[in-house]
Write a structure and sequence with these properties.
heterodimer; A: about 240 residues; mainly alpha; globular; B: about 260 residues; 2 domains
């Protein structure tokens, strides 16, 4: 059973990558009309990506996803607000910490910052900066999930917190240092990529189906977008504090 | 070979440290607060090992393929050779870089359309809207949104305009649209933007942006290079909301002519 699912997932991961390869190939052949250097390394790398993606998604589906959903259900049944909110925060925080795409982004950001002498160009300084960024993002994702869960419990419309976050972003951006804005705006969507989305969606949908009077679709979704807006605000504050 | 194994081993340790918090959180809450035995402990453990090895391979593949690829495309599409040699007289204008916008847009369109998570969501949308919003229409509108977002984003990098204005204008449009669309679709539309920016697209698009900012004269990676992902997750919200509105309007008109 496991083997068949593995092969199916491998094909899925290949399809994930296929559009990228097709678009790049079309442009390379028809528009640029030159051959790519170092093709072997590119192909090996792409195969690694496919294999890694396949194992990763398979692993998430086996472990984190069913667990998150059943835990959300258990917490809702338990009825303790304190533990539910605590769980929501911790889950958001740790999911963002584990997010591979975020690790990659903060490394890129630290590299750019040290190349342009925003921070000291030593390895410890850039590691420190990268870790600070990651923690900032993780704390804000945790907070966002906490508020989002509160929203589901209270039955507030999804756009209240989202509009508040929009206003916050619009107000803070003029005060943020110019070189943090791009990173801040990206960090939100990146923090809510592959690990966070399935877990958080499972949490939201699980909660909304466990609570009477909530619709899994209208109330369960909307956690992700809020979790992607909060880091934008907090990373800009981090940038202001760092400068 | 030995060196490579050592390198992979070190990566594995690093990934273990990154995964540790979420494993701790889940097990602590499971055993201390909920106090219920886990149903399939073996399956869970296998899953965690899969996640670990998967991330190691993925990160390795990123460094080898996806990052260089984004960078390569950015530099190839911006070399003077490729752009033609009319720049000495007038200087480059933003129109010269049209292949860049086109590349970004087609990349965005193709990846969004092929995204498996989006397919699952699209089917859910069709069910909740009672068939008024079609799964295919939903997917295509997300893909168009990502394409517009990335094209605008690369345009911003080329021109060096402020990221702020593009995003705030996007927010304003979303706020206005929210008041006119069917309530059912709002939460899904909001989330749709983030769902499409997956683990594969993010590194590629990020390196494309950084590569462009490096290649185009007068731009710096730190100020101009980031921000593409933000575009790619905001603009699909607008197109999905617009599609929902159109679908609703068409549905109403059909209803009226039938009665």
């Amino acid at each position: 059973m496991l083997k068949r699912r593995f092969i199916k997932q491998l094909v899925n991961s290949l399809f994930d990558l296929a559009p990228i390869i097709v678009v790049v190939l079309i442009f390379q052949v028809l528009v640029i009309g030159k051959s790519i250097a170092d093709v072997d390394r590119l192909i090996t790398g792409l195969l690694f990506v496919v294999l890694g993606l396949c194992l990763f998604i398979q692993g998430i589906e086996l472990s984190l996803l069913p667990l998150g959903e059943s835990m959300a259900y258990d917490f809702a049944k338990k009825g303790s607000l304190f533990w539910l909110l605590g769980f929501a925060f911790c889950l958001g925080f740790s999911a963002a910490i584990a997010e591979p795409a975020l690790i990659v982004l903060v490394e890129k950001a630290a590299l750019s910052a040290s190349n342009h002498h925003q921070i000291d160009s030593t390895e410890t300084a850039s590691a420190h900066y990268a870790l600070g960024l990651r923690f900032t993002v993780a704390i804000s994702v945790g907070l966002a999930i906490l508020i989002g869960v509160l929203r589901i419990l209270k039955g507030w419309p999804v756009y209240y917190p989202v509009f508040c976050a929009y206003a916050g972003i619009a107000l803070i951006t003029p005060f943020a240092p110019k070189d943090i804005i791009g990173i801040a705006y990206d960090s939100g969507s990146i923090a809510t990529a592959t690990i966070t989305v399935p877990i958080v969606t499972a949490l939201g949908v699980g909660l909304a189906s466990a609570i009477k009077g909530r619709n899994p679709i209208t109330d369960g979704f909307g956690l992700v977008v809020f979790a992607s807006l909060m880091p934008m605000i907090f990373v800009m504050i981090y940038g202001i504090a760092y400068a | 070979m030995l060196e490579w194994l050592l390198h992979i081993g070190l990566k594995l340790v690093e990934v273990c440290i990154n995964i540790l918090p979420i494993a701790l959180v889940i097990s602590c809450f499971q055993f201390l607060v909920i106090r219920k035995a886990v149903v399939y402990p073996r399956k869970l453990l296998i899953g965690f090992v899969f996640v670990l090895i998967g991330i190691v391979f993925f990160l390795e593949g990123l460094d080898m393929a996806l990052f260089p690829l984004g960078n390569l495309m950015a530099s190839q599409l911006t070399t003077p050779d490729f752009l033609g040699n009319n720049a000495e007289l007038t200087g480059r204008v933003w129109q010269d870089y049209y292949w860049v916008y086109l590349f970004a847009a087609s990349l965005g369109f193709a990846t969004a359309l092929a995204e498996p998570t989006l397919l699952a969501i699209a089917i859910k949308v069709q069910q909740t809207s009672g068939g008024a919003i079609r799964a295919w229409g939903f997917r295509i509108s997300v893909a168009i949104g990502v394409a517009i977002g990335l094209a605008l984003g690369t345009f911003r990098i080329v021109t060096g305009l402020d990221l702020y204005y593009f995003i705030i204008v996007g927010y304003l449009i979303v706020i206005i649209q929210t008041f006119f669309v069917p309530k059912l679709i709002i939460a899904l539309a909001y989330d749709s933007g983030n769902i499409t920016t997956s683990m594969v697209t993010i590194p590629l698009v990020t390196s494309l942006g950084l590569g462009l900012a490096e290649a185009i004269p007068g731009r710096t990676p730190l100020v101009d290079g980031f921000g593409l992902i933000a575009f790619a997750s905001l603009y699909p919200i607008i197109t999905v909301l617009a599609y929902a509105q159109i679908a609703q309007w068409l549905g109403k008109r059909k209803h009226l002519t039938n009665t």
